[in-house]
Amino acid sequence: MTSAGAHIIDGKAFAAGLRERIKVAVPAFVTQAGRAPGLAVVLVGEDPASQVYVASKHKATLAAGMESFEHRLPADTLQEDLIALVQQLNADETVDGILVQLPLPKHLDEKAVVMAIDPNKDVDGLHVINAGRLANGEEALTPCTPLGSLMLLKDTLGDLSGLDAVVVGRSILVGKPMAQLLLGENCTVTMAHSRTRNLPDVVRRADIVVAAVGRAEMVKGDWLKDGAVVIDVGINRLDPEPGKDRGRLVGDVATAEALDHVRAITPVPGGVGPMTIAVLLRNTLVAASARAGLAKPGGF
Ligand SMILES: NC(=O)C1=CN([C@@H]2O[C@H](COP(=O)(O)OP(=O)(O)OC[C@H]3O[C@@H](n4cnc5c(N)ncnc54)[C@H](OP(=O)(O)O)[C@@H]3O)[C@@H](O)[C@H]2O)C=CC1
Ligand SMILES: Nc1nc(=O)c2c([nH]1)NC[C@@H]1CN(c3ccc(C(=O)N[C@@H](CCC(=O)O)C(=O)O)cc3)C=[N+]21
Hints:
This protein is α/β, with parallel strands linked by helices.
């Protein structure tokens, strides 16, 4: 609790617990399937932030007892060569999950690359088959960041039924699947975006606010209803202050102001980010179990 009484949601600790439960479940898969679950991560180009995420995914995958296959391709990789790699990973029996780190360099067609991934290995949940299943309320591989965010919300609030939720941002990776998940929990969901009128007033109605915009500290404290629960998905690196830091990470919410209003909020870093990686491992184990004809692993 802070002095104002707001609870800081410890995504890092929750993610560590989830990773521990996955690590315990992996040996049962290995015994039954005769191999470890495998995750392939494809990184095109040298974006420094992406390099950091890919390295931490690799470490977490190995720590969970899974196989990690990293494919680093040069920034000028041809579309056909990237698609050929995806097809090779689709055909590889030791690969259960395929993640192509986004965004891709401009000359590549992201949609075509994602559509080339076998939907049963699409641990990012980006293929239209998985997006469609999620929208229809069917079993689906679900995007990691929204699913991790939902886990934190349920841990904080319990039943979400009937609550007013506002999701700011409508990307295929975060905002849209987040809204679908909240709808599935019987929230009344509003999706806001760059054309939304009177965004502060829209956000003020919400019991649950999910900010996934990519604009540093855009959501102000006085946009938040007293007692709201806030999930801050944004990861924005501020310009470095010479001699002081290498550029602080901040979210899409002005956290210090928000603390005077909210019941609970995720910090940046240490909130949603660690959940994304833990859920990626979860999705890999779920995909591996389905592919091996085994029961869906329980407990997460
Ligand atoms: N913590 C984690 O694990 C992850 C964090 N992220 C972070 O989350 C943020 C969002 O990511 P992502 O969804 O991929 O981003 P995108 O850039 O794909 O989408 C941003 C969304 O925000 C909307 N938007 C932009 N400006 C405004 C504005 N002024 N008012 C209201 N809405 C606005 C856009 O609207 P429109 O559609 O109209 O253009 C769009 O829907 C980024 O900071 C990203 O780094 C992303 C993935 C994982
Ligand atoms: N196909 C695809 N799937 C993704 O899920 C995907 C992607 N592309 N492209 C980029 C975004 C971003 N993303 C993050 C993952 C972990 C942290 C994370 O662990 N963050 C730490 C801090 C990390 C740091 O210090 O830089 C934290 O918030 O505590 C952040 C962001 C996944 N993304």
